[in-house]
Amino acid sequence: MSLQYLGLSEINGPLVILDNVENVGFEEMVEISMDDGTNKMGRVVQIEGKRVVVQVFEGTNRLSLKNTKTKFIGKPMEIPLSKEVLGRIFNGSGKPIDGLGKVFADKTADINGLPLNPVSRVYPRNYINTGISSIDALTTLIRGQKLPIFSGSGMPHNELAVQIVKQAKISEGDGKNFAVVFAAMGVKNDVADYFKRSLEEAGVMENVVMFINLSDDPIIERTIAPRCALTVAEYLAYEHDMHILVILTDMTSYCEALREFSSSKGEIPGRKGYPGYLYSDLSSLYERAGIIEGAKGSVTQIPILTMPNDDITHPIPDLTGYITEGQIVLDRELHQMGVYPPVGILPSLSRLMKDGIGDGYTRIDHSSVANQLFACYAKVQDARSLASVIGEEELSDVDKQYIEFGKLFEAEFLAQGMESNRDVIETLELGWDLLSILPKPELDRIDSEILEKYHNRERAFKRFDLTERTIIKELATDGE
Fold it and tell me: What global pTM score does this model have?
């Protein structure tokens, strides 16, 4: 027998409070009926003895303390699941908004997921090819990894997200068992339209599931959207043996909704006003990536967040960096130079990269090329710093060669445009051509056998049209 509770004790923003309520559970769904026959849904977000706080999905407009009947459903929020979700577009609470009707469900699942036994996790190996050289070569995305993108206001993270969705594929071939789950939180209408239009024009929508939460939608949808997306990803990965890439943008909007929600509950704030449980809340999302023993599928995550004031020590990027396995940082200076994608190489890393590249995965020289490109680009920054003090004309011949290398690296390797889709081998060849303009003694991170096999100065000069540059004269006198 289900009980209905007449009236409310208190209304506070998106929250309603009921007293003398028994036998309810945290996250339990609630149906609120009004006198005019309309219903609103909510969920239990706080229980203090017999006092229950309910967050209302559609907001508390037109609710009063006396015109409502509240019924507790007895189960948490669930989302209908079937393979038909591929190619569909949903709002933040998992309701279809593409005009194609409801999903005929094979099952329903709790959006909060089920806890995974850490012992059952399989160490992530093998890579996902994004077609973007700076990611594939230097911060390789490994299947089952969680690798966030740290961006900033006005940076092209939306364009990068769309490019990754369009180009991402697994290494085994045509990717029939590969799909993308894309969740956008707190985006404006024009950005939402850009996401939809770009993916439809690219012809990849049949392998994408989209969740769109607009900036004027209720904040509760913003906190639910990533959980709906991850529930769909887990279903496709573990019950249909698919490899799923989940892209969550923008996690800053999610955290700000969480802060607003926490404030309305009267909770004591932590750093910069965010709730003290922000770390554990983000963990409940990020830790739903991985590979489970016995399962053929995998869930890989790319959360995208905008750092307020480009501050990487802000609580959101700070806590995200603790939980995840590396980060890809977008650089504002490169963006202002017109480089796309403006991936800042030196602060970016992928902690699982070493176990998913090399012989049997990409190519035997991948690790060596990545290490050497990192080292050389670090020396470029040193040479530029020195040049800003003493002038470029006073630099040594080797430092001038590094300056030239840096210009080519940014113009040819980092900058590739939105329509360029490079496979890993093409990226590695480009890396070798860049390294080959430097003298061999400078390439001290590469085994001599690999260096002899792939170093080709003549091809590098031809590719970058270096015949008329002064670097030729400098390289000709480097003693080789």
Answer: 0.91
